Amino acid sequence: MRLNNVIPYSKRDSLRKITIPTTLTPELSQIMAVILGDGHLECGKRYSQTVMYRINIAGSLSEDFAYYKKIINPIFLKLFNIECNFILQRRDELAVSVYSKAIAFFIKSLGIKPGRKVDNNKIPPLILNSNDEVKKKFIRGIFDTESSISFKKDNKGFHSKPIISISMKSKIFIEQLKELLDHFNFNPTCFSEKSMRRNKIHTRYTIELAGKKKLSQFLELINFGNPRHLTKIEIYKKFGFYPPRLKYKERLDILEGKIDPHSFY
Question: Domain 11-253: which topology?
């Protein structure tokens, strides 16, 4: 799909030789998903004497650094000829940023609204009307950043029943994500939950893929790119179960044979 590339460049963009894609590729759809998942866009936001043009993505240093450094950063370099900035904030918080007027305006032109996550966040029409490969990479990007993988106990006491889930405030986003998953015959489960915080009712909307068959189908057709999830899957495949609440380093140690996962029971 051809894209509109009438995009304003700053002098710094020109000096850094920032490039802008001319077509909607699977890799670009993955970047869009990551921004919608873990990030937000600032396009002309004023801070005192500064006007900000930035993509900012938040993650966990221990869990997500490998993903953003080894997977997402090379995509930014390939698409835009720029590398991400990595900043450790508080404790285990990781900030991944890209500063560019041209890139900010380009991302906005794709249908991503500036500002932090909003309750009515939507999947851009470009994605909904794209080809299957673009849709698959978008789904992967959303599940890499927004999903959780948990394993329920079986009758032997081991956590061997997989559930992939995504929970958001935006009802329409979850409905659109369900449409994408239905397109690939996943038939996910959707539900909503209400909670009370600060004397106000909050509703979150959840989409789930539960069971071994759904997990196998997802890994075959979409798969994950984030080691946060892949390490859990590898342990599950190797041992047939996954102990809950393992840290990333513990998962690596299990996969390297340094820790027996049975020791967590």
Answer: Endonuclease I-creI (3.10.28)
